[in-house]
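Dear support,

We are seeing what looks like truncated structure output for some complexes. This example has two components. We would appreciate it if you could run it in full and send us the complete token output so we can diff it against ours.
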Amino acid sequence: MSLIEKAMETVVKLLPDKPADPLIGAHRTVGQPVSRLDGPVKVIGTARFTAEVTIDGLVFASLACSTIARGRIRSIETAAARRVSGVVDVMTHANCPRMDAPPAMVRDPNGAAMSDLPVMQDDSVRWNGQPVAVVLAETQEAADHAASLIVIDYEAEPADLAFEAMVPDAEMPKNILGQSPDVRHGDAEAALRNATTRVDRIYRTLRHYNSAIELHVTTAHWEADDALVIHDASQTLQASRYTIAKAFSLKPDNVRILAPFVGGAFGSKGVWNHTLLCVAAAKLVGRPVRLMLSREDVFRATGGRTLTEQRVALGANADGTLAALIHTGTTAVTSHNSFPEQFTFPARHLYATDNLYLQQKVVLLDMVANTAMRAPGESVGTFALESALDELGHAMALDPVELRRRIEPVRDPEKGTEFSSRHLLEAYRRGAERFGWSNRNPVPRARRDGEWLIGHGVATATYPYYRRPASAQLRLGDDGHVVIRAAAHEMGMGTATVQAQHAAERLGLPLDHVRFDYGDAAMPKSPLAGGSCQSASIAAAILAVCATLVKDLLELATDGSPLSGAGVDDVEMRDGGLYLKDAGGRGERYQDLLRQAGTRFIECAADAPAPTEILKYSMHSYGAQFCEVRVSAITGEVRVTRWLGSFDTGRILNPKTARSQFRGGIIMGIGMALMEDALFDERSGRFMNPSLAEYHVPVHMDIPEIDVIWNDIPDPHTPLGLHGIGEIGITGVAAAIANAVFNATGIRIRELPITLDKLLAAGIGED
Amino acid sequence: MNEFRYERAADSATATTLFAAGTHARYLGGGTNLVDLMRETIERPDLLVDVSGLDAQITLRDDGALMIGAAATNTAVAEHRLVRERYPVLARAILAGASGQIRNMATVGGNLLQRTRCLYFFDGAARCNKRSRGSGCDAVDGFNRMHAILGASPSCVATHPSDMGVALAALGAEVHVRGASGTRTIAMVDLHRLPGDTPEVETDLASGELITAIELAPLAFAAHSIYRKVRDRASYAFALVSVAAALDIDPANGTIRDVRIALGGVAHKPWRATLAEDALKGQHPTTANFARAAARELEPAVGLSLNAFKIELARRVIVATLAELSSTTEPRA
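Here is the complete output from our reference environment:
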């Protein structure tokens, strides 16, 4: 952290709190299980996704990707490709329009590129799978076929591909997403040595791919030499606009980016090579171009979650408190991105200890830039930390839920700040009761049903609360209907629905009088749909714009109006209008106010206040993941048979969309725990299972009924009391399963995924 | 995908004639594997002869054999009453494979001729003797967790992915084929070859020979037969190890009169476990005997860097499957 940031943090801590949102307990539309407003158009097929946009004269693109990890291109033979009927052009570094290196996400606060390497500007190859040619044709089929005919001659250079061998030489990055890579309170190693009970283990997680069902796709259309329209499957519209504008030396305002519907992203839909190549190709051929990745391309030309090697060492005192907590380790990244997979983040705030040692290092590999994938850091970090806690509880013969009670901190252990809203133990209490945790047999391998060994596990879930700057624009018509706009993203999680619910509640309007428009970078400022920050960020902007509306409406009030002369604190929005809080509650409907003022509509805009609460408080979401697994004593097959997620995520705005979010995260966590493994061949640097046939994610039969409950305790420092919930669902899942597998079998698996060969190697079923 | 010609055959004789007109012709069944491979340019036929409209009948012959037309879909076979009554292992094996949508498309003939799912076979950038003879094998020292433990060679360690074929091997099916020079039958266990030095030659079929039907001879004790498939997720995954088995217990003395065992996921072909079968005939159906038989079958098994677990897994699944069968099989007169 810089000195300026430190100083700012100190100042912020002295600031008074913003008043709590008066709607923190409102439940007219907020808190109702409203079905997704975008549901019908998706079900009947009229929702138009990026790959379905029609433009006259569209050219279809197909990529040829490198087959070496590092080196130079000696030559690219494109003649055969060019001869294919319908091929318009073939773009390589020889004819690719000039563009600057794109600003990378995290490295540049406004950047959205997943790597800041120049794109197709020279003959260098930096990873196996790098796009090296783009075939442009009248049909997708012609483009794909022609791309398969391109022959490339490489001059290969030695590449750094073997993670394990490089771990001893790992380096500490300057920071981990703005946080220190090295945290030391007290002397954790010494405290560990002196502890009554010790657990000191290495945990490993392998590579994962986000695997959104909608493939990455961009459609680009130059309307003029300096004006560009892009349809992009994006979860970060405005940062993409900035990034693309930078690369092509355009004014951001001259770049329009649209994404009304996105079919899942999970962190993977920023600006990759194909985005920029699509824009460049459209420039090259002077026609609109669509570049949709194949599923294989997704594994080659976009990155996923990197692998980790983590040490967790826990020292316990006899009373079950933590004498020492050490969480260190290494991940693989590239020289051209900044996603270190912040696996030490959970240990920064979860548990009380005087002796804390956290450290993250990285090795630089010649691979496609890794990126964020649902709860980067927390997902894999909780696997290690929560597995180790379970090991500690077992070593001390202490129930894992009771262990969490003994190590519950009063203040943030790293920063010393107050928690804004922390009810983890309540989530454990409610979860344990509903799951029937007290019936669990703490003795491993004590329950059996025929060949199936039955076990139960639990682990903490956690994810930070983030809020980022955002703005909203509001238009109120004299029909009493409202449209709110922000450049937000709907990837299927219910953004538009919950923000419409929010606005309806705040404005005192029926839900069908409110529309939330989003998906266009030209709309008011919105952060990326990432870091689970979008709901809170947009909600704060809507809160602000509604306050502005009240002010503007009062100015409209004519002399005869009961609102004449009233101040903003004297009135409330309810029942479709503005009413005095006292004086018999007299007031006016919105449409009457507008008509009397002789105006058809009123428009206003506002920025949300700066998110200073994040600096002042330790703000996180929590949960307890409970599960039951059955493990075959014959084959080592693991089946998850029961699940309960009990969450502490502030106020829940919509139980229906929330439950789906949590469930989706839990399912993804089950995949991570039991099967997901992107096979990176260290000889070639090539992913060997680039398809959903071979990169396994759970199928329906892998997933039991998933029960989800929540505390629903509002955070007094957030709009509506809400916390974003897009990511927490995946956290703690892998550890809960590993812990349940241990309870079932007595075998501790410390490397994901937990596959049957690992259980066989550990001797399962050898009585 | 490369350009190709497409012809639809009216009957099997025409099909073989049409086939001969291509340089690299392929018969097209449901296309669930071939079309995928064409998209990846692993298969580059210049001519497709569509045989999906040929004989799809499932009929009982006068001598009691069940004849399954090669164009019958996997679904049609799995749900056929006679298959379920007389050869339940076949129905179960089919239903353990792929997805409902794929089974609705896939044909019996195509299922048997599907190519390996070896990751290096699928990647044109990798070395693969099966794709390009003499280029080498990247799987031997690569990701070979799914690969063969029996009958492999230094040039190829790939497995045959079919579930249905494993059941057919256990049932002693005969494969009817038609070629330019007429018709013949091949024992199912001889249809596929071991890789040896020529892994690109996967079957005993001559060029242009077309599978026209599968013949299942009566096998009364197969009326109680099971298929157990072990895989990395609950469905829609290829077998790490699978076992198809049926037991015939002699009511006179309680010994094993006959037994059928075939393994999937372990070799370049559906693997009929004849060593284990021979070891069991005349023996009592005890766990100890099952274990001895499994060990006998797996004696020649060799593990690679990542798949040695399959040897122990196969041993256990053979024993467990036979134990399950023996505990549920009634001795027959």
